[in-house]
Design goal:
Elements lengths: L4 H12 L5 H10 L7 H25 L5 H21 L8 H29 L6 H32 L4 H23 L4
Helix pairs in contact: 1-6, 2-4, 2-6, 2-7, 3-5, 3-6, 4-5, 4-7
Length: 195
């Protein structure tokens, strides 16, 4: 079996697309509580997001699940806003607790599914004829690669800001969370299906 780089590049570009920054906003909010010591947990969460994203693509691609894109586009910024709440209201000092790990893992998978459903209709329009499950997995590899790189950049930025700029972890998490929360509120308003 040969690797189809088209799908890997498609996955990378999906995350890095500056016309669709929701993925980036979510990743920054997800990454903000982590540091170099907790990087392994962060990469596991990023992988959970990729799994949820891929699961929804498989369901919509192979089983033709009907998707109301208006509601999905509305739910995506809500997932981003929800991810920002712990950053705004408290400094996440319980990151090592089993309860927190379970909640954030399940939430990340669900958010991955929602984000994947948002991309499903576009993905079905650009796929090559006779695409297979392997092509979806190649796409997932591209997504995972770019997400891990972005997560590492955010962690390194955070460590640099804490060390050299004198920011406190709590203030930095709050600032990132509040800024992304405001961006997500704008996205919620722009995508709300009520008017």
């Amino acid at each position: 079996m040969t690797i189809n780089w088209f799908y890997i590049e498609l996955g990378i570009n999906h995350v890095l697309d500056y016309n669709a920054l929701d993925h980036l906003y979510f990743l920054v909010a997800l990454t903000a509580p982590f540091n170099l010591k907790t990087i392994k947990k962060l990469i596991i969460l990023v992988t959970f997001f990729t799994l949820g994203h891929t699961f929804s693509l498989i369901l919509s691609f192979f089983y033709s699940i009907p998707i109301n894109s208006i509601w999905i586009e509305f739910l995506i910024p809500i997932t981003i806003a929800f991810t920002c709440l712990p950053l705004i209201f408290y400094s996440n000092k319980t990151i090592s607790s089993n309860y927190y790990d379970l909640i954030i893992s399940l939430t990340t998978i669900i958010f991955g599914i929602i984000h994947g459903l948002g991309f499903a209709s576009f993905f079905s329009k650009i796929i090559i004829d006779n695409a297979s499950i392997y092509n979806l997995l190649e796409f997932a590899i591209g997504i995972e690669f770019s997400q891990v790189i972005i997560a590492l950049i955010v962690v390194l930025f955070k460590e640099t800001a804490l060390k050299f700029l004198g920011f406190s972890d709590k203030k930095l998490q709050f600032t990132l969370g509040f800024f992304i929360f405001l961006l997500s509120l704008k996205m919620i308003y722009n995508n709300q299906p009520f008017f």
